[in-house]
């Protein structure tokens, strides 16, 4: 199944996006040549003759005209129409010292905007609607690809990217939908769209906060039990980084807005938009990374909890460190026991025996190969020797699969057997991915591990996920940063022009 990042899918989405943009532009231009300016009279007179309306227009030419005016529900409604491009001011004076001054822009297309260059416009209400529909379309498109990809295989890193974007778009669509009835300003529509992506980090923050605490506590326990190392400290550092990345941009913004040295309240000050850009870019990137973390956890848990079909011919037992006397550590014994449990359940459900393939070479500090140690354990549990193929040269998970498959081919004579593998729960998803990279479509079963190790291990799986497809993740980060920067430039132009 091809990813959404293929050229064909990109072209389809770009074409649809361009069509939506052109439809929106057409409706804005079509409807925007007139504008009804609404002014709250603050409970003043309902007599329209009590209000004097004057126009101050740039240059000597006429920019806007007044088609009509009336009072309705305590609001003064002034119907304007465009005449020529430019800027004009509408001043209203009424009884009891009532006064109001509004700025009106007329674009070259004849579109009238109020308040700013890309401000309120008659036809601008269609923009948030079209953006919400486009986000929904992309969301549906991604969901279909995600479900098809899952049907092909759960063990694919692209599933994590799909799910991460689905989470981002669901949050964004919810936020975008909340502003559908408040449309009318092109600038506000862009700001809301920008904030809908950055706000994901705040929605996910409670989850990230709780996760950071759990990761911190489990890291401390892990370091006490297994010693201090970068490997054991990594989850704690990641938890601190998530909290810092969520809080620091907001804290810096608050300090700058209250600072006497930088005026961020001035819409014409470039520093205002630099701060806005950096803040939104950092939150957008954080939102993406947090959603990748959530997607990694969700799919890793799904892989660990999944029970493969009971039609397997072989089950690989992935090795890890053994004890000094050659016996299995609790972690490795859990993997072997899980394989034995699956074999028993398959025999009861389908009446089908399975061949065990214990896999793992001999480390420099081990007295025997891990595969041999697992084999001895299986024999002690009553498994016949002819139902065991021992792989004893591999040094990592990739070699576990590669070397074990070679042994299976030698025994099976080139047939296409159904294969399962047994590993620790947190390692099932990544092992499945590695098996597919070796051309093996294997199903995994996961053994339990201690809670403090489980939490830390899943965080390490997240880091492994990022490194496995770092080019794609970097591309997503760059695209998000460019989109945020473009939106900030749009807002700046609206306020400066």
Please give a structural write-up.
The protein has 497 residues and is of the alpha/beta class. It has 3 domains: 33-110, Immunoglobulin-like, CATH 2.60.40; 126-297 and 470-496, no CATH class; 314-452, HUPs (Rossmann fold). 56% of the residues lie in helices and 14% in strands. It has a 4-stranded antiparallel beta sheet with strand order 2-5-6-7, with no helix packed on it. It has a 4-stranded parallel beta sheet with strand order 9-8-10-11, sandwiched between helices. A 3-stranded antiparallel beta sheet has the order 1-4-3, with no helix packed on it. Helix 2 runs antiparallel to helix 3 and helix 6 (230-257) crosses helix 12. The chain is elongated. The two termini are 48 Å apart. The relative contact order is 0.09.
Quick take:
By secondary structure, the chain is an alpha/beta fold.
State the helix count.
Answer: 13
The SS-based structural class is alpha/beta
User: What's the N-to-C terminus distance?
Assistant: 48 Å
How many β-strand stretches? 11
Shape: elongated
Describe the strand arrangement of the main beta sheet, using strand numbers.
Answer: 2-5-6-7
Determine the mean pLDDT: 85
Query: What proportion strand?
Result: 5-15%
In which range does the helix fraction lie?
55-70%
Largest sheet: 4 strands, antiparallel
C-alpha Rg, in Å?
Answer: 32 Å
